[in-house]
Amino acid sequence: xxxxxxxxxxxxxxxxxxxxxxxxxxxxxxxxxxxxxxxxxxxxxxxxxxxxxxxxxxxxxxxxxxxxxxxxxxxxxxxxxxxxxxxxxxxxxxxxxxxxxxxxxxxxxxxxxxxxxxxxxxxxx
Length: 125
Known about the structure:
By secondary structure, this protein is mostly helical. It has one domain (3-123). The protein is built from five helices and no strands. Helix 1 packs across helix 4 (94-113) and helix 3 (70-88) packs antiparallel against helix 4. The two termini are 24 Å apart.
C-alpha cells in the first residue's frame, strides 16, 4: 500500500477516534465542581479517578487529534479504555464493553504506529 495512504489512514484514525472520545470526556468536565459524584473503579478515590479519566478522555484525545506527542498521548487513552472495559464493565456483556474495546484498540494502534506524516509530531522533526 502507498505510504501516503497509510499517513492518511493514521490521520483519520487520530481525528476520528480522538474526536469521538471527546464526546465522552467533555461532559465529565462539569463533574469537577463535585468530583465525589464520579465513580472510583480503581480505588484511588473519586477525585483522582475523575482527573485520570479526564486526562484519558479529554487531554490525550486533543493531543492525538493534532498529532502531538502521539505515542505518549495514546498511553493514558488506552489505559482509560482498558479500565472502562475490564473494570467498570467487568460484569457486563461484550456488547456493552464493545465501545471501550474499540477505542482501546484504536489508541493501541496509534501507540504502536505513531501519528504519521500529517501531524505536529512530523512537523517538529
